[in-house]
């Protein structure tokens, strides 16, 4: 299983938390199991391979992190959803953006551009093109306004500077 697939599973689990009274730990306890993956994997290829220990840890980190920081993440989404009421944003788009924002804010080993790119690619799989553009725009604005420049990123050129 790739990290991309593990991320998508984390989005699925985060989405599901929005429709249950379970905590992240409770959901992970019964969903992140071989029998559940075997059952779901018969119909959904994403679940055909059970995640190894490293991938399980990544899924758990994302799902618990999104669960624990949900109000903060939703505030960022609302702040950058210019012209959209939060309630109007598709729940799948919200789940995708929550995971990406959590990675950007709390998982320093994941480059911001990678988190955004993965979110946009996933959005293309589930959402209409105009919503994909919306997700991309929100995440781009969020990074530009809320995050310091990434370590190791090339400094911006000054006017008149040679390069």
From TrEMBL:
Q: Which UniProt keywords apply?
A: RNA-binding, Transcription, Transcription antitermination, Transcription regulation
Q: What is this protein called?
A: Transcription antitermination protein NusB
NusB/RsmB/TIM44 domain sequence ranges? 5-144
Regarding protein family, the annotation reads: Belongs to the NusB family.
Cross-referenced NCBIfam families: nusB (TIGR01951)
Which species is this record about?
Pseudoflavonifractor gallinarum
The record describes the protein's role as: Involved in transcription antitermination. Required for transcription of ribosomal RNA (rRNA) genes. Binds specifically to the boxA antiterminator sequence of the ribosomal RNA (rrn) operons.
Q: Does the keyword Transcription regulation apply?
A: yes
**What Pfam families does this protein's entry cite?**
NusB
């Amino acid at each position: 299983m790739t990290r991309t697939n593990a991320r998508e599973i984390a989005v699925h689990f985060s989405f599901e938390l929005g429709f249950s009274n379970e905590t992240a730990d409770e959901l992970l306890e019964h969903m992140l199991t071989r029998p559940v993956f075997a059952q779901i994997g018969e119909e959904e290829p994403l679940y055909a391979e059970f995640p190894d220990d490293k991938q399980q840890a990544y899924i758990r980190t994302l799902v618990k992190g999104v669960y624990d920081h949900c109000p903060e993440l939703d505030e960022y989404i609302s702040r950058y959803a210019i012209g959209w009421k939060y309630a109007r944003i598709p729940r799948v788009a919200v789940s995708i953006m929550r995971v990406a924002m959590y990675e950007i804010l709390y998982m320093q080993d994941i480059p911001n551009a990678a988190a955004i790119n993965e979110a946009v690619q996933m959005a293309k799989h589930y959402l209409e093109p105009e919503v994909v553009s919306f997700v991309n725009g929100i995440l781009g604005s969020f990074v530009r306004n809320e995050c310091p420049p990434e370590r190791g990123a090339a400094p911006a050129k000054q006017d008149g500077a040679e390069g």
